[in-house]
Amino acid sequence: MTDPTLLSAPAFSEADLRYMQHALQLAAHARDAENEVPVGAVLVQGDEVIGLGWNRNITLNDPSAHAEIMALRAAGEKLANYRMPGATLYVTLEPCAMCSMALVHARIGRVVYAATDPKTGAAGSVFDTLISDRHNHRIAVEGGLLAEEASTMLREFFRARR
Ligand SMILES: [Zn+2]
Question: In whole angstroms, what is the distance from residue 81 CA to residue 162 CA?
Answer without folding.
Answer: 41
